[in-house]
Amino acid sequence: MRKILLFLTIVLLVIITAGCGKESKAKEDHVSKVTIGYFPNLNHAPAIVAKEKQLFEKQLGDDIEVEYITFSGGSDFMTALTAGEIDAGIVGPGPAMNSYTSGVDVKTIASASTGGTVIMSRKDSGILDPEDIEDHTFISPHVGCTHNVQFETYMKNYLDVTSSRTGGTMTHVTGKPAQYSTMFENGDIDVATAPEPWASVLESEGNHVVIDTPDISFGETLPAAIFVTTEAWIDNHPTIVQNIIDAHEEAIDFINENESEAINLTIEGIHDVTGQELEREIMENAWTRTFFQADVDEEVIQEFGDASFDLKFLKEEPDFSNFVDKQFLN
């Protein structure tokens, strides 16, 4: 009799535990709104296309509202992610990696694009080659952002030239890429680390390509934009994270299979945010320097992190072995 009672007790506990597990999982995945962050740049076209085609909405269903917030720089994006103002989204690897090494909860769950960084010089600056850049002023969206690290890595490795931040002669300022044209016209800056499509805008205005995408450090291998969330969100909302990445991959497939329409959608998406309507010819030129994929090259991430440390953007030698979580990729 005792054996029978013990057996029935164990069975009852198993049933209760299983029921609690299902209830817990349901609670984990229940949210009423998901907020996605991204930049109005070509590298972030997967988010723009996903928004315009309502791919996140379709994957998440009618019960979840999708909100979008745009940013001009990675530090603002990471602040918003840390504060819970956004749940996931696309950002440059530099800011995300800098935050990760500072103990911020951030995980890369997909790539968005590679390429798209071009070093431009003002047409009347006299700068035609990288060797001419020393002693001049350059701009990037933010200190330590992806484009900043790519440019300074190139200048240090090939020309032994650094910024004044590390004792060199180049002066560094920051500003929004959409404003680079005006700053060039005013003579405020000499060189721009320009993400596409803003590089092609500057090029169309007669400014010079000094270092093109294939030649800049990590130019065609480093993810120019990555899709990130937090480990807490992955743990608490794995089904939603999977739905988000399914939509993200659907957007990338659409871009690669429908280039003409994707260009139109990206032009419209950038105009909606910045008020600047880019000519199609400019976007087509920018498109040739940008490549869209969801897979992440973890080795390149580590190499980029080592370069950031070498340039003193990071205080300690980094380890990015747990920075990438590829479980949601198909």
Give a quick set of tags describing it.
six-stranded mixed β-sheet, D-Maltodextrin-Binding Protein, domain 2, five-stranded mixed β-sheet, 330 residues, 2 domains
In short:
This protein has 330 residues and is of the alpha/beta class. The protein has helices spanning 2-29, 45-52, 55-60, 74-83, 93-101, 146-159, 180-185, 198-204, 231-236, 238-257, 259-274, 280-287, 298-310, and strands at 33-38, 65-70, 88-91, 107-115, 117-121, 137-140, 171-174, 191-195, 208-211, 223-229, 290-292.
Question: What report would you give on this structure?
Answer:
By secondary structure, the protein is of the alpha/beta class. It folds into two domains: 32-114 and 222-310, Periplasmic binding protein-like II (D-Maltodextrin-Binding Protein, domain 2), CATH 3.40.190.10; 117-211, D-Maltodextrin-Binding Protein, domain 2 (3-Layer(aba) Sandwich). Helices cover 46% and strands 17% of the residues. It has 13 helices and eleven strands. It has helices at 2-29, 45-52, 55-60, 74-83, 93-101, 146-159, 180-185, 198-204, 231-236, 238-257, 259-274, 280-287, 298-310; strands spanning 33-38, 65-70, 88-91, 107-115, 117-121, 137-140, 171-174, 191-195, 208-211, 223-229, 290-292. The strands form two sheets. It has a six-stranded mixed sheet with strand order 2-1-3-10-4-11, sandwiched between helices. The chain has a five-stranded mixed sheet with strand order 7-6-8-5-9, sandwiched between helices. Strand 6 (137-140), helix 6 and strand 7 (171-174) form a beta-alpha-beta unit. The longest helix has 28 residues, at 2-29. It starts with a helix and ends in a 20-residue tail after the last helix.
